Amino acid sequence: MNRNDTMRQIASSEPWDVVVIGGGSTGLGAALEAASRGYRTLLLEQEDFAKGTSSRSTKLVHGGVRYLQQGNLTLVFEALEERGRMLRNAPHLVHRQAFIIPAESMLGVPFYGIGLKIYDAMAGRGSFGRSTILSAAETRRRLAGLPLPRIHGGVCYYDGQFDDARMAITLAQTLFDQGGYALNEARVVRLLQHNCRIVGVAAVDGETGQEFEVSARVVINATGIFSDAIRSLDEPDATQMLAISQGSHIVLPQTFLPGADALMIPRTVDGRVLFAIPWHGSVIVGTTDEPVPGAAMEPRPLEVERAFLLDQIARYMGRRPHPEEILSTWAGQRPLVRKQGTVRTAALSREHTVMVSPHGLVTVLGGKWTTYRRMGEDTIDRAAQSANLPRRSSPTANLRLHGWTATPAGTSDPLGVYGADRSSIESLMQERPDLAVPLHPQLPYRTAEIVWAARQEMARSVEDALARRTRALFLNARAAMAAAPATAVLLATELGRGPEWIADQVAKFRALAATYILESA
Prior knowledge:
Elements: H1 3-11, E1 16-21, H2 25-36, E2 41-44, E3 60-61, H3 65-69, H4 73-89, E4 94-103, H5 108-123, E5 132-134, H6 136-142, E6 153-162, H7 164-177, E7 181-183, E8 186-194, E9 197-205, E10 211-221, H8 227-234, E11 242-253, E12 262-265, E13 274-279, E14 282-286, E15 290-291, H9 303-317, E16 328-337, E17 352-356, E18 362-366, H10 372-387, H11 422-431, H12 447-456, H13 462-469, H14 472-475, H15 477-495, H16 499-514
Parallel strand pairs: 1-2, 1-10, 2-7, 4-12, 10-18
Antiparallel strand pairs: 3-6, 4-6, 5-6, 8-9, 9-10, 11-14, 11-15, 11-16, 12-13, 13-14, 17-18
Helix pairs in contact: 2-7, 2-10, 12-15, 15-16
């Protein structure tokens, strides 16, 4: 996975079968689907892979318990099926996670118990584990340390958890394994047309400022929250299809939820779902669902979101955290397909839609991480039909992703997310003991991972390395700021950059990381 190799392929001027715009879960899923069918495929991402929504999820691989509650059985069935495929195809990135729902009323236990038995039945052979009814004493034991004064019992159910940005990088690597190519820092600025048909794109290389053109038999718009902006390049007067909502999270020390089980509150005081989930030695609390007026690559939690999350932490986890205990806070935006008459974004479906414009632009809208593969399959089916590509069946349902290993590492293994590549990183540390030292005492990463990110994972900046190749920024923003200078030096050595680049990178990253720190709680 090398950026220079991709630039050489682009410079060869050989036409592509498929060009995908967007390097998040949707675009990577579509590009991998195309390449695995043997189509010559190029993906272009305006910043970095998973820079936007796809690195900012609640880290769940799930069928959607709340979608079951809404009666959206089609989405639940599809997501449960894809959940099982994600576990089989990427066991180094996806694992089973137990969730506890405490019942604060006598009716809560049978109500949630019956609902989750239905959830189990819908999963069929793909079940992640049978849900069980818990006594009040067992619920308190498994959620030790939480204030549960009025608990009448609880329910334990199982879903999946993953590292979203690492999954995106793995999809990009698998794309290369399948003969495809991807380029980050490549912003599409125009759609090329001939005889009223889109025949390629013009993009700007963010590193050189040079514009380049690539021809393609079909162009796919998989840009998530920016989909309407790309559609407007094709049809300036196109109706806006998206309603964008924002979800925010707060990261706390593990002491706030010391056990291995996650907490799920299906209905808070204002009717929202709340999760508190162990992740990389910390606890993620979220999420919210607030409509926002427009798309932002780097959204920040709104005051109303921060207040809601802090109130819920105080209620369900015993106390309001001190500002210094809040390790990081971030927001992500969801690309939801508008529905006439629906006001609340929380009520909008997470199902996806694929559409083809009169000029042949294929756009995929909506969806969620768990169904990324199915979205890619549906998108390439439509794209192949629209562009008269040779008909080929999809192989991705059983396609093992890059790094697949028969013996997945445990969730406490920092190098486990690399799967089969783990041994190469260990060899790097053996060859250079200076790369075996921790990146920061409060982070679960080694300096070798930064070198690996530059050599093998197309990391081009300190932010790439600390936000998405490692998850330092999302786990502990203060520690990430402290690690920035050493990270910049390592990257500069690998990328051939000088002192000015190092200083600029450190300054930019520290300014970004400061926005992930909550100064008051």
